[in-house]
Design brief:
The protein has 175 residues and is α+β, with helices and mostly antiparallel strands. It has a three-stranded antiparallel sheet with strand order 1-2-3, with helices on one face. Helix 3 runs antiparallel to helix 4. It starts with a helix and ends with a strand.
Amino acid sequence: MKHSLVIAFVILVSISTVFSQNIDIRTGFFSVASYSYQGSGYKSIEKNFDELKEIMKLCPECIADLNSFDTKYSIGYVTGFIGGAALGWPIGGYIGSSMAGRPTWEGYYTPMILGGGILFIVTVILEVTAHSDLEHAEELFNSMSDQGSFLNIKKLNYGLSISNDMIGFGIVYRF
């Protein structure tokens, strides 16, 4: 009995990993977006974008969302760099002149800070919408890949409990 339970567990885990072809995407505002496919390690989306597009090539809507993510992310990268420079130049200039003993606020500092602040806000909006496009592509692909699999196992939890008088093993599948 004990051996048959272990064999059944191994077979179920094997089947669930073979038939699950989901993509797991991690995003964060201050971190690089990464993905994992079929249990492999997480890869940077920036460095492996073509590979991710190749995985999702059967879903045209996913490719459209990936292209939208790429465009918004690239534009956000450029506007963030320019906005950061426009914010940093006046602040650095003021701090530098203060350390020299004559703090001066130049006339062009105010428009630079305003322009940099606007570009910073635009960058935040682009970053948030780019990540939502990426998450939408992930949801579409995972829902598409789940439709054709033998077992639609969304989550596998298992555990072992040991006490003085018995040993328990539990498996929970969420379909």
